[in-house]
Fold these 2 entries.
Entry 1:
Amino acid sequence: MSQEEWWRTATVYQIYPKSFCDSNNKGTGDIQGIISKLDYLKMLGVDAIWLTPVYQSPMIDNGYDIADYYSINPDFGTMSDFDNLLEEAKSRGIRLIMDIVVNHTSTQHHWFQSALGNKDSEYRDYYIWKDPVNGKEPTNWQSKFGGNAWEMDELTGQYYLHLFAKEQADLNWENPKVRQEVKDIISFWAEKGVDGFRLDVINLISKQQDFLDDEKGDGRCFYTDGPRVHEYLQEISQDVFQKYGSVTVGEMSSTTLEHCQQYSSSDGMELSMVFNFHHLKADYPNGQKWTKAPFDFIQLKSIFNHWQTGLNGKGWGALFWCNHDQPRVVSRLGNDQEYRELSAKMLASTIHMMQGTPYIYQGEEIGMTNPHYTSIDQYRDLESTNMYDIMVNQDKSVSHDEMIEILDQKSRDNSRTPMQWDDSLYAGFSKGVPWLSVANNYKEINAKQVIEDSNSVFYFYQKLIKLRKDIDVITSGDYTDLFPEHKELFCYQRQNETHRLIAIHNYYDNEVGICLDLTGKEARYILSNYEDVEGSIPQNQMVLRPYECRVVLITK
Ligand code: TEU
């Protein structure tokens, strides 16, 4: 592993600035707030920060609608605050990864403003315009946030494509000028000293050019891992990423293992690593997100098996449960009441002992939960409010009460509630009223409390981050699911030439017995979430208590 591949043993911390820390009490987080918490992140031990978008934006989708890629949104601060953040992070040995959103721009971007209503604009061809078909939208493609994916430009009579909100117009990557603009943007931030980039929905940038109706689905088959996507990524990689030695992580929507092997191939021609979401659909029955459902445990394990074995030696994946689009994992797959801390640790161990680069989403390290909102007025996310309107008011497919339950499980706002720093009003996030309500468990669950408790979720994460650096088999070992059909235990082995690592996780609140082969020169526990385990000698037979996890390292 070369010096440039520092990210293979690293852990990244994701910051959603709007909800992280507010330095001047306006109710929304900002860059100075982040700077004030860098020592906290240093203590946790993370190697890098991924900052979700802080650029100029009307904030229809909280910054994923960028109006100017070269300036900072005043809500977050100034460019000098940003430079300051970069410097302060670097001085603590923490790298910075920026979020690049170039599948689409805000419709407030000057390119789009010039293109709208003007077929002669030099920027018209930066976007995707089509004439109506039979007086209607050019195709039946659906926006990811609900409704048709085309919006009419009244002055020219043409439609533009938006795979997300209508305020997020898709860029036309077929146009070489667009690709040059993207390279200029990324170079600008790399020149500043930014260490890497997270590329938003990057596998959607190349659209099949015949723009046909999708007879079977929502249109995604025409643009997911599209015809020229690898070519485009190679072009940017060669012209920018390789030049600056940037670490890159591509967000891959509804992708396949085969494409991800190529995106993240160790030849470095495209990206360093990928985010894929298959494991986070174990509670989407038949692929349906907008329904309340338990998770399918056997399916969850089989998805991890597919990706862990499939990427080994061929590519590299990000390991994550949480981000700003996903509900809190402890509420989703764990138990956010009686066994909150135990299950938070057990879940963390499950992914941190796998191969890949772990990402911790703000608040995950203190075991934050979904807020369990009870009113639609508490939600801010446009996807949640759109889906409420479509399902309750338009289609009438669910009742108000059912939708509140669905949102409690699935809304993106579940992870966007303000970071819980202490037990003071608004959880120490701000002294002003937060833009999104704080979860009402902040008096018990907060950063101040976990730092004071040596047995907390926080110190468990700190340990996981360190184990990755100390124990090579976590990075290099191959992966075998030891009991794929077991209904309660997730137990896998990682193995290289010198070591075996066995990670055992009980996903339920009852006791479960298990018998394992632990033969070798030496076997020892390196991790557990019950205090009495470490230090004792592992036995072949063991009983796992509710949500217990144990990790055994065997020298061969
Ligand atoms: O998300 C892409 C994406 O497809 C999602 O995870 C999305 O939230 C989900 O499909 C909705 O059900 C990225 C960003 O992470 C997200 O915050 C943005 O809203 C989206 O792209 C558009 O830029």
Entry 2:
Amino acid sequence: MELRLYDTLTKEKRPFVPLDAKNVRMYVCGPTVYDFAHIGNARPVIVFDVLFRLLRHTYGEAHVKYVRNITDVDDKINDRAARDFPGLPLNEAIREVTEQTGKQFHADVDALGALRPSVEPRATEHIAEMREIIERLIAGGFAYAAEDHVLFSPQAMNAANSSLPRYGALSNRSLDEMIAGARVDVAPYKKGNTDFVLWKPSKPGEPSWPSPAGIKAEGRPGWHIECSAMAWKHLGEHFDIHGGGIDLVFPHHENEVAQTCCAFHQERMANYWMHNGFLQVESEKMSKSLGNFITIHELLKDWPGEVLRLNMLKTHYRSPIDWTMKSLEESARTLDDWYRVAADVVPGEPAASVVEPLLDDLNTPLAIAALHGLRGEAAALSGSLRLLGFLAESAAQWESRKQQASGVDAGEVERLLAERTAARARKDFKESDRIRDLLAAMGVAIKDSKDGTTWEVAR
Ligand code: AMP
Ligand code: ZN
């Protein structure tokens, strides 16, 4: 069976045909590093990790290149730096914020079982590429400098008599309607009210770099140009897959397409545009003001990363997801069971019943249903779970972590179990029942079999 992916641009599921099967290329918009990542940010990380793993499984590990950027220049970073490190010069404070947050992001996504991308470029290391694209856009008549800014003109793009894509095609909007609906109080240096910033002046003390377009004052890039520059540098002018959350379709991805296609005279930037749906918490939009804003870091104190991962993958990536405590508990029980059955067996090939739904536009809910059906085939279950990024630990590690998290003292449990065995041997069933009830009250479930008694922390 072939891989099929849904493309936001053409609004259809199509067979995936890479430009070069020896070098399959994917770009995903990464985090802006100014604060702990929240559980919504974990969704693209996990979803595109599954796709990365599936592509590696299909085309070979050496033949897939996955780029996920780090945005380390942004107003939110500057604000945070000034607030958290008031004693430091702004540039040093910014370095502190981006380094700390970047490290935290890595710790979080490693715990979620996500492979590191092939390249994780930082925006501030690609200023030369941004300037180059900006110069090309000006030379092509798509961009202009005004009052130390450089602006991109969507109208110039759509007026160009060429094979460029139409501005608005990705997000399914009409430029005329955007022009009619735009705010009236547009910045005076903009020629058109839908023109967007490629480059802007830096305020005193802010990070700044020599400007393009003959602008004397130093400046800094707009957000959209960063991704065009990093994708170009690491994947070329035209590549296979571009991903991110659905909120990025407009304006971020629409503008990336415009910049890249106009700078390099391409009909397309990426052949497949993939977007994950949004995550909400207990049926509400996650926000700081509602008090239901949860970071990955906080969740990892209560749940193993693989539980968060499974919980995310139970919903198809394009559907909205409702993140609930009930569903987390269920995911934890499922993983307990899979760890018991499959963690310590030699993995076999992933089962076709799991791989086939994945090939159908990453149908992870169906793949997970198939995993439930593999309980009796431990080797296939193990191989399939590993393909999906599970079973990083042994069964014993998993169980001991659960014990630690629950505060159950394994030594105490063993002592009580020995007492219970002794009570049973002398046929004192009242005492053995009392000990079983005591263990149950401690959150320990026991199972008697002909080989003796085993126990685990009950979920
Ligand atoms: P940001 O740091 O806000 O630019 O987000 C980084 C990534 O997380 C982007 O791909 C966003 O689309 C995605 N994202 C942010 N919030 C959510 C959410 N609530 N649900 C799903 N994805 C999200
Ligand atoms: Zn981006």
